[in-house]
Amino acid sequence: MNEETPIEEFIFDTGEAMDAAYRVLIEDEDIETVLENSKYLVVFPFNILDYNEEDIEDMLQHYVEREEYGKCIILRDYYKNKGHGKNNNRRI
Predict the structure, then answer these.
(1) Residue 71 domain flag
(2) pTM for the structure as a whole
(3) Rounded to an integer, what distance in angstroms lies between the CA atom of residue 14 and that of residue 12?
(4) Could you report the per-residue pLDDT of 30-49, keeping only the tens digit for each?
(5) Which segments of the chain does DSSP mark as H helices, in order?
(6) Closest of 59, 67, 61, 78 to residue 21, by C-alpha
(7) Is 18 within the bounds of a domain?
């Protein structure tokens, strides 16, 4: 194991985790559906039912690094319009 590689990269794939969170938050997929349709173990990068500004910022940074600017714009607008991250009515 390379000492410069964060341990979480060996536990779960950050890209898969962010994409799963994006599908739940933005594409309005049920958490259960995301879990059932994934070919990998899904580990969300944060509490998908109670996220905050920092969580959205982490997602934005992830998509900036992947140059997926369309997703960045959608996430920014979603967070701005949803009362800054309280998502208490998510279907499980």
Answers:
(1) yes
(2) 0.73
(3) 6
(4) 999 998 888 777 889 999 99
(5) 8-11, 14-25, 31-37, 53-65, 69-81
(6) 59
(7) yes
